[in-house]
Input
Amino acid sequence: MKDGMTIAVSKGRILKEALPLLARAGVQPLDDPGATRKLVFETNQAGIRLIVIRATDVPTYVLNGGADLGIAGKDVLLECVSDNLYEPLDLNIGRCRLMLAGPKDAPAQSGRLRIATKYVATTRNYFAAKGQQVEIIKLYGSMELAPVLGLSDLIVDLVDTGNTLRENGLAPLANIADISSRLIVNKASMKMKRARIKPFLSRLAAAIRE
Ligand code: AMP
Output
């Protein structure tokens, strides 16, 4: 966006944790994003605007200059590696693990494993690094269902408490990545709007440490 500074925030769990952090950094939306269907929020800081969008769309908005900054989970960022983004801050929110999981007590598998996941690139990289060829089945949600119904042998998904795995008869097999939410910045915005973005980064870094 041309004027001011636009921050794209992933809706849902990340938004809930990001709002108190942004407030400590001095940025508060004028309307409650949890209580309206609005997508654009002016804030108490003239010229700083929040947009609240799907997690997977945050890097796309920031990469294409629709937003200058973004708050997104490392799980989403691992899927969309780009030279045009800075990732200057680990916000230490939205913590969980990206894990390989499968049915408890499943017999050892021969042949090519089928893995159901939303995280196709990360899963492919993980198995490629082990020299293992797998078949990846792309799903958009409820990955835990896939092994239960025989769609896949294993899944790769986010795990927080582990309750969802347990309740579906699955167990963790390997930790692929520790996940937390990161601040991302469009490289061109950083150059053009440095005077506005730099002080915000400092305030946010202080708010993370609080
Ligand atoms: P849990 O049952 O606490 O292990 O949470 C697992 C479920 O919540 C899975 O469906 C995950 O996709 C989702 N989940 C866990 N942590 C996160 C997170 N930080 N961001 C988004 N989704 C998450």
The radius of gyration is 19 Å. The first strand starts at residue 5 and ends at 10. The mean pLDDT is 95. The pocket of adenosine monophosphate is lined by residues 13, 73, 94, 96, 157-164 (CB under 6 Å).
